[in-house]
Specification:
The chain has 107 residues and is mainly beta. It is built from one helix and eight strands, in the order ββββββαββ.
């Protein structure tokens, strides 16, 4: 995924099982973590952002990045993941990969 430095961006997801049925996320903890290096511990993350449950019974949630999450970061490629923790034994990685911060466009 990519975002312009210092921009607000909203990501929407629906958690589903292997056959496509929605997973109830009532009481779940949702976290997006962005790191400089893939193996960095979570405590060393560039930033992390809590997600918001939109509709628990249908597995819908979103994660909203704020200006402060990227406005002082150097443009470049980083690593991210989004996890949904329903319990200590039921944790889903919903998305992961490259998180690119693009230069801000100033006119």
């Amino acid at each position: 995924i990519s975002v312009h430095r210092g921009s607000v961006k909203n990501f929407e997801y629906t958690l589903k099982d292997e056959v496509g049925d929605a997973i109830n996320i009532t009481g779940a903890t949702i976290t997006m973590t962005v790191k400089e290096k893939l193996r960095d511990p979570d405590a060393s993350a560039l930033f992390s952002r809590a997600g918001t449950i939109v509709t628990a019974t249908t597995g819908r949630f979103d994660v909203k990045l704020l200006v402060a999450d990227t406005d002082t970061r150097n443009p470049g490629k980083y690593y991210y993941d989004i996890t949904v923790s329903i319990s200590s034994t039921e944790i889903y990685t919903v998305a992961h990969g490259i998180f690119e911060i693009l230069s801000a466009i100033n006119l």
